[in-house]
Amino acid sequence: MRAAFLCLFLATACTSATTPATGPQDFSEVWSQGVADYVGVAKTSTSATADGVTTFEFDVKSGPICLRGDPFRMAVRDQKSDDLMIFLQGGGACWSGFCLAVQKAPSGIPNLDVLDPTKTSNPFRGWNQVYLPYCDGSLFAGESDTDDNGDGKVDRHQHGLRNLTAALDIGVKQFPHPKRIVLMGSSGGGFGTIPAIVLVRKLWPDAPILVVQDSGTGTGKQGDPQFLEQLVNEFHVARFFPPSCTACTTSAHLTPLLDWEMARDNNLRVAAFSSYNDSIMSGVFMKIPPEQFKKGLLEATDPLHAAYPDRYKRFLIDSTMHTTMLGDVSGIVGSDMSAVTLPADALPTLATIVIGNIDDTKLGTQTMAAWLAAAADNTPAWQDLLAP
């Protein structure tokens, strides 16, 4: 189980760089392990439409649930487009040794940056939207219930797979035949795009998929693969991870499954953003010096660009910035701070957090907005861009 989880969440090659892409649906090894077990299982309890956005709330008895037992919600915006954005929200992570996480799912879709249908610089402004709040702290992958204090009651409901599946069930019913899909995630949602790929491909077998990772590239704690072992044990996510991904037991990072996926799906591209010195990833979650995070970031992503130079490209800046596609910290944690578990030792770093936006984040003259537009259309302007 540990080997399999590390394969998903670690970023050295699971397969060699010479492994040929064999087609857009060659994920049967993972599907046979039960990744799609919850398709069609969840039941909605309510739905409501406001300002063109429909929010669906799920019956907790049918599986989807937030960290402390609150209902899971998701939302859609139908703009009558042939294109579909699936957005996985950020909001921390939670395990027995540390917990900084959003624990409730709000209604609606925040009108921020890449989610703003009126923002002229937003290359996805006219796309249909499937929006997933993140409220269980397991990177959209968990399948566990944990009693932390030994009183016989569940303290952590980490049903990331069930939440993800329930939302995608709604998404495929609302938008069954998109011509192209962007699967985007910020922070913890960026990490979550990696396990989500195999389920998105199961439900939409033919559409080209562009994965956009916003400060969630899959970089782990450089030099310390044991950092992830606790997550492996607590989240119980082995069903995502193929036995054939042989490098999964050795890396300290989180994306060899991404390598495995890209080797098997030539209709899959990835656009990854991070800062070299991301203060939240390095200082809050990993508790390592920024220079160690930068080293790990390059160690994790260099092999992917080398293996798939036309399909895996990065936008890496020299900054402490954490996320750049929502433009406001409320886009990650929402406006209800009572719904966020905040450890006291994280508060000093959080007080200095730098959040970017798609217009002001630049490398040279290239803005994030322009880079994303080029990625969406797969034009020559979509380049692998790294700050010195």
Summarize this structure briefly.
With 388 residues, the protein is of the alpha/beta class. It has eleven helices and 17 strands.
How many separate helices? Answer: 11
What's the alpha carbon Rg, rounded to whole Å? 19 Å
Say how many strands there are: 17
Encode the helix/strand succession as letters. Answer: HHEEEEEEEEEHEHEHHEHHEHEHEEHE
List low-pLDDT spans.
Answer: 1-23
Order of strands, widest sheet: 1-2-3-7-4-10-11-12-13-17
Global mean pLDDT: 89
Tell me the CATH architecture.
3-Layer(aba) Sandwich
CATH class: Alpha Beta
Main pleated sheet:
10 strands, mixed
Shape: globular
Examine the coordinates and then state which fold CATH places here, giving the name of the CATH topology.
Rossmann fold
Computed structural class: alpha/beta
Quickly count the domains. Answer: 1
Bin the strand percentage.
15-25%
Cα-to-Cα separation, first versus last residue: 38 Å
**Helical content class:** 25-40%
